Amino acid sequence: MADAFQAFREAIRPSIAPADGEKPGTATRDAALARSLAESLGIEECKVTAALEELRSERQAEKAAELKTRLDQEVTDGKLSQAVSDAVTKASENGVVGGGCH
Questions:
Q1: 3-state secondary structure of 37
Q2: Predicted local confidence at residue 20, as pLDDT
Q3: Tally of domains within the chain
């Protein structure tokens, strides 16, 4: 696995240095990761892409469930109103705060 990730790092390293503070976009990184892992593992790139998308979806669902549990407890404890909890949930789902689920 370490070799696969090292190959990924090399695959996404730009041939021309990016401007200060600039990073490759998510789609570029994802495609490079899938390509690199597929090559390293000897499997089709589309299978790696599908697996990465599934992992990302699972993680986003876990984060959303954790947030809901935490917000529900805050409402129960009287620290937040239900309206505020709903607003935070909506903001998270739309990627406004906390990385969101887009």
A1: helix
A2: 62
A3: 2
